[in-house]
Each structure stands twice: as C-alpha cells, then as structure tokens.
Amino acid sequence: MVYEKVFERPQFPVERYERAEALMSWNLNGKLTHSNVQPSWISNAALWYSVNTRKGTEYFLVDIERNMKEPLFNQSDIAIALSEMLDDTTEVEPYSRVFQNMEVNSTLEFVTFEYDQKKWRVNRSDSSVEIVEELPDVERPDASVLSPDGTQAAFIKEHNLYVRNMKTGLDTQLTVDGEVGYGYATDSQGWSRSDRPILFWSDDSQRIATYRLDEREVEKMHLLKTATPRAELISWPYALPGDEHVPMHERIVINVKTGAITTLKTEPDHQRTSNCCGLTRGTQWADNQFSKDGRFLAYVSTSRDYKEVTLKIADTQSGDVQPVHFERDELFIETNLQSRGVPNWHVLFDSNEFIWFSRKSNWGHLYLYDLRSGELINQITQGNWNVADILEIDEINRRIYFTAVGMDKDRDPYQQYAYSIGFDGGGLRSHTPTEGNHAVSFSPEKNYLVSTRSDVRTPPVTLIKDVFGEVVMTLETADDIELIQTGWTKPESFTVKARDGKTDIYGLMYKPSDFDPTKKYPIINNIYPGPQVGSVGTRAFSPTRRGQVQALAELGFIVVQIDGLGTPMRSRDFHTYYYGDMSDNGLADQITAMEQLAEQHSFIDIERAAIYGHSGGGFATASALFNYPDFFKVGVAGAGNMDNRGYTFYWGEKFQGPMIQNEDETDSFTNQALQLQVDGLKGKLLISYGTLDSNVHPNMTLLVIDALISANKDFDLIVMPNRGHGYANESYKIRRTMDYFVEHLLGMSPPKEYEMSR
After folding, report:
1. CB 339 within 8 Å of CB 388
2. Would you put residue 150 in left (φ > 0), alpha (ψ -120 to 50) or beta?
3. Mean of the per-residue pLDDT values for the chain?
4. Is 606 helix (H, G, I), strand (E, B) or coil?
5. What's the number of domains the chain is made of?
6. Do 22 and 95 share a domain, yes or no?
7. 722 located within any domain
8. Is the CB of residue 732 less than 8 Å from the CB of residue 24?
9. pLDDT tens, 486-503?
10. Which H or E element spans position 587?
11. Phi and psi (nearest 5°) for 589?
C-alpha cells in the first residue's frame, strides 16, 4: 500500500476577500461623482449640462460671457409640481433622469422637456410649469432605429423593413420580398446578431441606406441549450475563415416618403466596415454618408481580406455607382485606429472634395482629394503620430477639428488631445495643451470648448476653454472621497522596452492597499492582447478597469496590464507586428516587461508569475501556458478563440490573413491553433467556457481540452451552462479565479465558497 502524506495548506484570511469584494466594479459604481459631464450647446457662448452627483443627476446652465454657472431649474420644486399636476400616486424623483429630451431656448428663459407623454415648459424666472403639448402615445417598436428627427422608427418584421410613424402609430412596410436567409437590414454577422436593423438614415429623415443580406448558403453554427427534459438546438449562419459562401450585402436606398427602392448598380459587398469592429457605430450603419439633399450616397466597400477599400458615390435615384478612390494595404486597412471608432473619411459634396484617412506613411493621417478626379490635393496632417477621431469639419472656414495621440513625444502616446488644422495642412492648433487625456465638445462657432481632462491616476476636471486652450471657467471637479474610502488604490503607470529592446511599451501596475515594499508579491498579468484593443484601454481615469484588477491585487498580488506589440494606437508597424501568427499575442513583450519590472522593484517575485484573461485574453493566456511554461506558472483562460479557424471569418481573415491550404495538409492558420501546442503545458491552467457562447464558440475550447486529455496533461475546467460570451464578470467566475491564484501562487486555501453579493 502506498501512503501519501497530506500537507494542509494555511487558510487564507476571509477579510481579504471582503476587501477585494468592496473593490468589485459593481461596488465602485457611484463612488466617483461630478465626473460625467454631458454638455449641450444652446448658442456659441451658452450651454447646459447634466452631471452625476451624490443626489443623482443634476442640471446646470452656463453663460460663458457672464462667467455664470447656476442650476438650470430647481429640480425638487419641478418634481413636486409635476406630481401635483398629474395627481400621481407615484412621487416624481427629481434626480433620476426623469426630464427627457430637454431643450433651453436661446434667451435662456425657458426649459422644455418631456415626461409622462407630455411636453412641459419651465419658466426659469419663477419656476412655474405648464403643459405645452400632449405627446402621441405611440409605443416605439422593440429593436428599432429612430430617424434623426425622431418622427420615424425603422424595424424588422418577418425579414422585411418597416417604419412606424411615431406621431400616428401607423406602420408602413417598405420591403415585401424578404425571406429567411435573404432579409432586409438583417443584423446577422455570425459572431454578433440582433433583431435591430442595420441602416443609415439621411439627415433629413427621408431616405434609408441599407441592404438585403444574402446568407442562404452560409453554413450553420450550432449550440445546445441546457433544458429539461431535452437539450434545445440553436443554429444560425456563421461563416468561418476559408468558407466558400459568406454573407453578402446587396445595397439599396429607400425613399421613405414615396416608398421607392433603388438597387445600387454594383456587385454585392462583403459584410465589412473599413475598421474594426462590427457594422454599426451607435445605431447607424458605418461607412455611409448622404449628400445634404439625399441625392447622392457616399460609401466605402471593403474587400473580404481587408486589404482593399474603395470610396464610391451612388446616385440614389438611378442607382449608378462611381468608384472615386482606391487604396490597398498588403496587410490590412484601418480607417480609424480605435475599435468601433467612426471611420475617418468625409465627402465634401459642396466643394467636390473628400477627406481620407490612411496609414500609408506608417502613421494614421488625413489627406485631401479631388472628388471628381480622385487626385490628391494635399496631405493635411503629418508626423510620427496618429489622428484618432475627426470631431467636426468646418467647410466654410476649411478647418478640421480632431483628436490625436502621440504628437508630444514626452507624453504618454495613448493620451488623446484635441487639435484643429486647415484643409491645406496649415495652422495646426492645440486646443488642449495641458497634459492628460481629453474629451471635448466644441461650441457651434468653435470659440469655446468643454474639455474634460483626466489620466489614469487623476480624476476628471471639466473646464470651459477658449479656442487657444486657455481656461475660461471650471464646471466640475470630480469628487473621489467615497472611492478612496473603499480602499481603492491608484494604479501606477510604467514604461519599459518591448522584445526588441528598443520600442517603448506602456502599462499599469496595481498594488494592494496595504502594500509593503519589504515583502515579495507574485505578479499576475491581466491580458487582452489585441489586435483591436490592448490590455490597458482608456488613458482616462477609470476606477473599474477590465479584469477586476484592483480587487485581485487586494488579495496580495501585483497585477499588471501591458500594451505590447500588436496593439493599436501606435504606428502601423507596431500594430501589425504579429500579423500571420495570432498565437504570438505579444507574449514575448509581456514577459520582458514583467522581467524589467522585477529588476526595478524588489517586491516583485518573478518566479511566481501568472496570467489571466477572457476572450482574446483567454486565447493569449492558454498560449502563454503552452509556449512559455517556464515563465508563467499559473493561468486562468476564459472563452478563448483558441483556433481562429473556428472563429468568425472576418476576424481571422483580417488579422491572420486569408486561408491558404498547404501541400502538407496544414494551412496558413495552423501556427495559431492552440490544440496543436498543448504539449508545452507544465503549470496550473484553469479553462472556462459558456455553453451558449455564440461569439467565441465553445468548440474551440473543446478542441484544446481534447488535446490536453490526449497529451495526458492536468488542467482544471469550469463550464458555465447557458452562458454566452459575457460571463467573465459573474461573481462565481471571479471568485473561482481568485481562489485559483490564492491556491497556486500563495499556497493557501481560499475561503470555502466565499459568496460575493452584487
């Protein structure tokens, strides 16, 4: 008989879990106030805004020329007046965003808003309230898209497109021949789908640009829903890399007033936008722009492999389509470097020009072209930095207002600043010279701007500035007293070198609130590797960052987030670094960064290094444990796209490249398939997936699990029944992740089944 001596682990103190729980994102919500300013300009020198306060939502009026800020109206008095006038048994809550569609008149005397199907007017001088209009009691259809003027709501019914008149409630059917797999405005992208139509309204609310989606021959993906007594099969079209049949858009323009449908005379388009990710920005179909009169539609076609884009102009009456501008990138195109950023192109119909964004210089810049000839007029912006977003275009004064990153070499290259420049590339002006990350809103004539500045350690301050960036008045300074009282600790920024020993890469470090520099702490990497975003995310102040990182640090860890090679917002070369081998995941940069931090800080125990992440982070975590087993000792990998041959075709064909079959029965995706890399596993690995994940299908994780079993490798597994892709923030999953690191990095027994309330 063989006897095994059992060593009882010391018990980890439950008090630390309680402290970590206090730092969960849902417990930090509302702890930072006066931080979310939402301005609405009334005139060039007056605005009103809403802001989150300890009371709730408050409203203020600002008259810049008088240097005046005051409450927009007495919210408590108005709420009482509403309750009395309605004889309502439910008391109106004055600070709970009950005042909808608010407007202030140009003389600043009256405020109108909507509540309880009525339009109300407040006289600011005496706080009197009156009903000025009974609003139509029309229910907005579920999953609909409102027209710009708010009078019509477009929705899908039985694969056809309808609009509802929001004044009369009358529904009008716009298309009649939609069918299963061949419907109108259908949002079915494989990895993402909904009942909401995908379309683009003209500014005058008279026309809709949309498509008929042909996915009739696209192969199906399948999931099993856990149910009693039998599991239920869920199937839907989901194209994979290399598939012969993929969803295609047949573009149309609908005149909503007349019902006329114009089919554009062009080949069907691939289901693409010219930058990552998805087809919509807000509620509108991206890469579309109507002329002011709706006669012409400008749009961008993107090739299946994302290497080619073409700007086209369509006549919305005849359907004729004219190509205007073509660009090819041998790797992949991006017209905005931010995930789900609005594509940075704009057609100037009045002057027969267009503004175009390109990375052809290795950096993302704006160019001015002639619309008729397609010839380059001049480069607008230039330098070793990137345009982030076009904010506004002043066609009269021929000036572009935009945000950019990396222009100042002595500052964090991810912080966003606001600038403007002439169409001719002259007169570059900074509107936010103070160091930090800036979100801005310009007045109608651009004399003033509202600027909210913060950084990863500094809560936001919202100011009125003049066009030269000089402070005119302070609107709000964020209050972080309640946040600090929770034990929340500010992250620390750092800069280290990438794997090449030359390129600067940036990250954040999180420490426990009772940090002791004389102790040794394990180091855990929270990774989201790109290529569409990085691990850190925004450089604005954010107490609730991805991965519940501060809560995890509170258990006695150093947690880091690092943006390595292959992530966006830097040069094209930086962003495309591991194109063609997605399993690289920037891991060599993560390792060298962690090693450099350990050399700089004696409190980091680099021999106890771990990693965790979800989705792309789960993919990176598994790759780390398989390919760098002597460095990463513990990993927690959730919902990973472990082999992108089984993930959506748009993702893999963009960032891995087109599927190419080799003579030896491998293909161009073989090098990133993690089920072929499991032999390297030495450490502790916890894998999880949701059984109803329609984004990253569980089949990819099951392939890895099968390979681990075949290789006789030990691993741990959590299966989340009937969960989709977003289970990462479920209390159970977070607690088990914490348990895993406590057990395998600290060598202690976590509190038994600690329950985190929400």
Report:
1. no
2. left
3. 96
4. strand
5. 2
6. no
7. yes
8. no
9. 999 999 999 999 999 999
10. helix 587-600
11. -70, -40
What CATH number should be reported for the domain holding residue 648?
3.40.50.1820
Query: In sequence order, what are the residues at sequence separation of 6 or more whose Cβ sits closer than 8 angstroms to the Cβ of residue 570?
Result: 386, 406, 413
Q: What count of other Cβ atoms lies within 10 Å of the Cβ of residue 457?
A: 11
CB 541 within 8 A of CB 454: yes
Is 533 a member of any domain? yes
Same domain, 25 and 85: no
Q: Which two tokens stand for residue 575?
A: 């962003």
Please name which of 463, 467, 466, 658 lies closest in space to residue 62, comparing C-alpha atoms.
463
**Cα–Cα nearest to 484, from 32, 163, 57, 1:** 32
The yes-or-no verdict on residue 4 having pLDDT over 90 is no
> Mean pLDDT throughout 396-413?
97
Domain boundary pick from 96, 111, 134: 134
Residues 23 and 49 in one domain: no
21 and 63 belong to one structural domain = no
Q: What are phi and psi of 36, to 5 degrees?
A: -115, 85
**Residue 640 falls within a domain, yes or no?**
yes
Tokens of 379: 């480069």
- Which of 119, 134, 149 terminates a domain? The answer is 134
Angle at 95 between CA 93 and CA 98, to 5 degrees: 65
The Cα 33–Cα 482 span in angstroms is 9
213-248 tens-digit pLDDT: 999 999 999 999 999 999 999 999 999 999 999 999
Written in H, E and C, the secondary structure of 473-506 is EEEEECECHHHHHCCCCCCEEEEEECCCCCCEEE
Q: Look at strands 152-157 and 321-328 and give their pairing.
A: unpaired
Q: What residues have CB less than 8 Å from 698, skipping those under 6 apart? A: 223, 689, 690, 691
Residues 18 and 48 in one domain: no
How far apart CA 60 and CA 475 sit, in angstroms, is: 9
Residue 1 pLDDT > 60? no
Mention every residue, 6+ apart, whose C-beta is less than 8 A from residue 493. 412, 456, 457, 506, 507, 508, 509
| Beta-strand pair 261-263/207-214 | unpaired
Both 24 and 76 in one domain: the answer is: no
Amino acid letter for position 655: F
| 96: containing domain | 38-134
- Which residue type sits at 419? Y
Q: Is the distance from CB of 523 to CB of 597 less than 8 angstroms?
A: yes
Q: What is the pLDDT of residues 366-395, one digit of tens each?
A: 999 999 999 999 999 999 999 999 999 999
| 25 shares its domain with 120 | no
- Owner of token pair 């990774």: 527
Nearest to 431 by CA among 446, 413, 418, 415: 418
Instruction: Provide the token pair at 444.
Output: 């109608």
Run of H or E including 703: helix 698-710
Do residues 748 and 556 make contact, with C-beta atoms less than 8 angstroms apart? no
Q: Where are the beta strands (DSSP E) in 288-337?
A: 288-290, 296-302, 308-315, 321-328
Query: Please, are residues 669 and 582 in contact by the beta-carbon 8 Å criterion?
Result: no
In this structure, are strands 461-466 and 471-477 parallel, antiparallel, or unpaired? antiparallel
Cβ contact 198:185 at 8 Å: yes
% of the chain beyond a pLDDT of 70: 99
703-742 per-residue burial string, b: 16 or more CB within 10 A, e: under 16: bbbebbeeeebebeebebeebebebbeeeebbbbbbbbbb
pLDDT tens-digit profile of 578-612? 999 999 999 999 999 999 999 999 999 999 999 99
Distance CA 27, CA 486 (A): 9
Amino acid (1-letter code) at residue 270 = H
Q: Tell me, yes or no, whether 588 lies in a domain.
A: yes
How do residues 553-565 score in pLDDT, each as one tens digit? 999 999 999 999 9
Burial of 90 (0-12, 13-18, 19+ CB in 10 A): exposed
Backbone angles phi, psi at 91, to 5 degrees: -70, 130
Based on the domain organization, do 622 and 592 belong to the same domain? yes
